[in-house]
Amino acid sequence: MIKNLISIIVLILLSCSPSPRYTSDNIIYGVASHYGHNDGFDGQLTANGEIFDQHGLSAAHKTLPLNSWVKVTNLDRLTKPSVKLKINDRGPYIKGRVLDCSSGAAKKLGFFEQGTANVKIEVLKWGDNKYYKTR
């Protein structure tokens, strides 16, 4: 009986803990990739209804509210370049990646040629998660 009670308490406490990739200061660490360059997404509608511009500064994230603004920093470069991006799409859909940047953002962050980078993502402004049809 006591073992069951302790197990239930432990499960409750563990279920209340935050996801390990998020910190208490709205910071996410992980691997970012890029999309939009020669893959047919340029000019298509994003998840929030905007038209995707591969040269623009936007990104896709699986769970952050659409229309959120984030500051992304490339941790692999000595100069630690960073850029502010709008979350306007969903993804990435490759295991182990937390962000898909537009090609323009990947170039500013200095990982376009490599394809991926370890990044720090800071939430600057939480989005409204609304869909805005632009066509």
Molecular structure report:
This protein is an alpha/beta fold. It has one domain (22-125): Beta Barrel (Barwin-like endoglucanases), CATH 2.40.40. The chain is 16% helix and 31% strand. The protein has 2 helices and 6 strands. The chain has helices at 2-15, 103-109, and strands spanning 27-35, 58-60, 69-74, 82-89, 97-102, 116-125. Strands 1-5-2-4-3-6 form a 6-stranded mixed β-barrel. A hairpin with a 7-residue loop joins strand 3 and strand 4 (82-89).
Instruction: Tell me what the CATH architecture is.
Output: Beta Barrel
Q: Show unreliable segments.
A: 4-22
Largest sheet: 6 strands, mixed, barrel
How many distinct folded domains? Answer: 1
Strand and helix layout:
Elements: H1 2-15, E1 27-35, E2 58-60, E3 69-74, E4 82-89, E5 97-102, H2 103-109, E6 116-125
Describe, in short, the structure shown.
Helix content is 16%, strand content 31%. The protein is α/β, with parallel strands linked by helices.
